[in-house]
């Protein structure tokens, strides 16, 4: 059996329910049975109309003005910002917030947040990249409609996650060939971009090998040139003792690198490396390696 694709010309359906409602305690509003389940199923309400007789209008209006009106804000923020610790704790776990992102459940990506439940409506590409467990959403096998998935995450639930941490692992007494860690003044004076790129590449390669604790930068390394032709650029004849983890004085050089977790199936990641040359007054070098998501 073929299902027709959703169309704006399809007529909406109306279901009528007749039932009896018992006494309602305002201090303990029912949550089961109709009409309460139908009311609670309404999540993001745009407008509320109340029609009452004129003779009770004043009493009802006074009650409504005494109640605190809900606040509405239009914000520009990513889903990652919503899940940050401060916002998650203050507005979701301790507060009472509802959020509806721009978009539609049938086209593009959309997320909703209600009573601590995060619901995601994703296209196929985003769903596969998210790596979360979900289920198909919408009409199956519909012509002209692309496959979509939905998933739900309870942000109020204790995930019982095991706390993990890491400790610094200093590498000391690594005798290496120290290379000049400054861009030659002649290159800067002449504005030679090509020479600057070569010099910066040499320094970045040397710093990367130091981080990897490669024997290629260790003093006295005598590997066969057939296996490796690397030689530290402009290396001093004497070996310096380098401590990768250290508290650097203001006039000392240091290099700091940060690498992200893998972002794609190929293991690509982003990396930033920062170098402060020796005896520099605000001078630095920075390398940014960005992966294609």
TrEMBL record:
One of its GO terms (biological process) is tRNA 5'-leader removal. One of its GO terms (molecular function) is ribonuclease P activity. InterPro entries: RNase_P_Rpp40. One of its GO terms (cellular component) is multimeric ribonuclease P complex. This is Uncharacterized protein. It comes from Trichoderma aggressivum f. europaeum.
């Amino acid at each position: 059996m073929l299902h027709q694709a959703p169309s704006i010309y399809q007529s909406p359906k109306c279901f009528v329910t007749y039932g009896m409602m018992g006494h309602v305690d305002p201090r303990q509003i029912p949550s089961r049975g109709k009409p309460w389940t139908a009311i609670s199923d309404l999540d993001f309400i745009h407008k509320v109309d109340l029609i009452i007789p004129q003779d009770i209008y004043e009493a009802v209006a006074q009650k409504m003005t005494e109640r605190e009106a809900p606040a509405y804000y239009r914000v520009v923020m990513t889903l990652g910002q919503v899940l940050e610790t401060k916002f998650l704790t203050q507005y979701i776990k301790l507060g009472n917030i509802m959020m509806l992102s721009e978009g539609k459940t049938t086209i593009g990506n959309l997320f909703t947040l209600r009573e601590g439940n995060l619901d995601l409506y994703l296209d196929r590409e985003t769903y596969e990249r998210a790596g979360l467990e979900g289920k198909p959403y919408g009409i199956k096998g519909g012509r002209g409609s692309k496959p979509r998935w939905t998933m739900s995450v309870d942000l109020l639930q204790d995930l019982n996650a095991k706390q993990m941490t890491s400790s610094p692992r200093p590498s000391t007494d690594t005798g290496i060939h120290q290379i000049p860690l400054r861009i030659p003044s002649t290159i800067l004076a002449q504005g030679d971009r090509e020479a600057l790129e070569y010099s910066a590449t040499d320094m970045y390669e040397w710093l990367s090998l130091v981080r990897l604790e490669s024997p290629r930068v260790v003093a006295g390394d005598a590997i066969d040139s057939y296996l490796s032709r690397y030689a530290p650029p402009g290396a001093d004849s004497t070996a310096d003792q380098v401590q990768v983890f250290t508290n650097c004085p203001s006039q000392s050089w240091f290099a700091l690198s940060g690498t992200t977790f893998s972002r794609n199936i190929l293991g690509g990641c982003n990396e930033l490396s920062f170098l402060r040359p020796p005896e520099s007054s605000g001078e630095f070098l920075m390398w940014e390696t960005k992966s294609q998501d």
